[in-house]
Amino acid sequence: KNQVEQSPQSLIILEGKNCTLQCNYTVSPFSNLRWYKQDTGRGPVSLTIMTFSENTKSNGRYTATLDADTKQSSLHITASQLSDSASYICVVSGNAGKSTFGDGTTLTVKP
Amino acid sequence: GAVVSQHPSRVICKSGTSVKIECRSLDFQATTMFWYRQFPKKSLMLMATSNEGSKATYEQGVEKDKFLINHASLTLSTLTVTSAHPEDSSFYICSAPQGPNEKLFFGSGTQLSVL
Predict the structure, then answer these.
(1) CA distance linking residue A66 with residue A74, whole number of Å
(2) I need a labelling partner for A108 at 20 to 30 A (CA). Which of A12, A39, A77, B6 fits?
(3) Is the distance from CB of B23 to CB of B33 less than 8 angstroms?
């Protein structure tokens, strides 16, 4: 069964600090892995998308890594801002195009 | 970048009424769109895949007659919650894939509250 596990479930950090969110998956075959940011009451917005051959991808203060061998990905947020408070969702797609969603990590950045 | 517009953003209705939610791809054509339901502090749950010009594909456990999907054009899919009841209250989101990696572009979501 295809599964995407995210950790931690929730995280509280102080403004300016860095943090790393984890995503482990069992989706096979693998096509791509995406990280989304979802503000409360809004639709998810894409942060990064990585295919099998990509190990790291950055989008501003967001850096995603992918280890296709261990089926793990991380999202690193640098110098956090209050506006980073949101839910971060890891989505893994197989070759058939079907996406499996993680439950997300709720990040709270406090001043 | 690609934009998906979802309307309305919030709707409050009485029990027993039907509610229609629209999802439009504004600057690209989408032969496929996805509809999700999301409960508080939980991730998106795929309800159905909307296919332009053909019947939608529903996920296991999703009632076809309850959640009517119409994908009449390459830029518009609608989800109608028929005879809504309080347990249908939820956040509904649509998405459309675009590009070689079928990157998903999401609508802004619709918060449905059934009284």
Answers:
(1) 7
(2) B6
(3) yes
Which A positions 6-65 lie with beta carbon below 8 A of chain B?
A: 31-32, 34, 36, 41-46, 49, 51
Residue B25 CA: distances (Å) to CA of B7, B38, B55 = 12, 21, 19
Q: Do A41 and B111 touch (CB under 8 A)?
A: yes
* Contact call for residues A11 and A68 (beta carbons, < 8 A): no
Sign for the CA dihedral angle at A70, A23, A74, B59 comes to positive
Residue-wise pLDDT for B19-61, tens only, equals 999 999 998 999 999 999 998 878 899 999 999 888 999 999 9
Beta carbons within 8 Å of B50's beta carbon, 6+ residues apart? B32, B33, B34, B35, B56, B69, B70, B71, B77, B79
